[in-house]
Amino acid sequence: MTPVELSRTVLHAVRRAVDEGELSVTVPERAVVAPPGPGGCGDYATNIALQLARAAGQPPRRVAEILRARLLEQHGVSDVAVTGPGFLNLSLDGTASADLVVEILSRGRRYGHAVSPSGTLVRLRCPAEVRAVVVADVVARVRRSQGHFVRVHHDGPLDPEWTSVLGVDADDLSEPSGLVDADDLSEPSGLVGVELDVSGTVRPLPAPADPLPLGRDAARWALLHPALHDRPRITREHLVQRETNPLFRVRYAHARTRALLRNAADLGFRPEPGLVPAQGSDPAPVRGTAATTLLALLGDHPRVLVAAQDAPDRLARHLVAVADATLPLLPAVLPLGEEKPSAAHRARLALAEAAGTVLAGGLSLLGIDAPEHL
């Protein structure tokens, strides 16, 4: 169950409470669900009860208890706890987690992408400055992943090396990635069904030095990882292969997941989505460990892509979080010694493959390679 699906589940619980007369509120259009914060528990948390309490004329915890009873009846929800002033903390059962892994593996690198064009034409302008050009390139990539048609216009000629080294595109009109197959998309008038025009200017804080000596991948990461209002650091630290380098951690985590798939094939077993048990002899589902954190981050990926349409740094930081949650899981993926591959190993392998898929897809949107060997 993804956060989007869980949000709909929460709204369905609100709607039932309204229909049955326990709450007198207008059902909101959206319920925010996210990994629980300090003091929380479970897989996801929502503040919907606090949001509705004033309109309902009831204390937030009372609203939370009303919604808790209905959420416990929903498929895929194994437990709901009320914490603090009225936060709802939801735990998902193994089936819900397996469904998320199945969805990621079926969508591949396009997990989190729109499945149909949005009908939106986005016009982006940016100064002819290297960081602005790279950021605009990624904003266009992410917006295309969400079904938009995008035109990028640069206020001046581009350095040819920005194209040859950094891989940025010249001014063009691009269709939503993988969604349509049209021969003439050179002018908006040639587009069918485009109704909404959104314009914006991409103007991040300029780079303090030439990033080209770092090469494509490290240069793009150096320009994209900091928030747009922060000055990027153009140093060779982005090239070192150690844990202090977040780009290395992301690419290393992806390469390790691919290596595990190859090693598992040599041992004669394949990934099979299922319940991910605790590492060790405890057969209980993992709660509050790397696997739970990783599942929450993977489920949050579609929301991050929406947020990254104007802030690519959010996607970069999200990939670091996914990598950091993936690496602790990996030592328990393969059987040890004479141990035979079990359902637990297959489920962990499927989760690792899903994590690698999200990392590869996210890096691709940033214009950065995701090597299988590192």
Report on the architecture of this protein:
The protein has 374 residues and is an alpha/beta fold. The chain contains 12 helices and 8 strands. The chain has a 4-stranded antiparallel β-sheet with strand order 1-2-4-3. It has a 4-stranded mixed β-sheet with strand order 7-6-5-8, with helices on one face. Helix 1 crosses helix 3 and helix 8 packs antiparallel against helix 12 (343-365). The two termini are 32 Å apart. 44% of the residues are buried.
Instruction: Tell me the number of strands.
Output: 8
Query: Major β-sheet, in short?
Result: 4 strands, antiparallel
Task: Tell me the helix content.
Answer: 40-55%
Strand order of the largest sheet: 1-2-4-3
Portion of residues in beta strands equals 5-15%
One letter per element, helices H and strands E, the order comes to HEEHHEEHEHEHEEHHHHHH
Helix/sheet category: alpha/beta
> Could you report the average pLDDT, rounded to the nearest whole number?
87
Question: How far is it from the N-terminal to the C-terminal residue, by CA?
Answer: 32 Å
User: Which residues sit in consecutive blocks of at least 5 with pLDDT less than 50?
Assistant: 178-195, 280-288
Task: Specify the number of helices.
Answer: 12
Radius of gyration: 23 Å
So what's the overall shape? globular
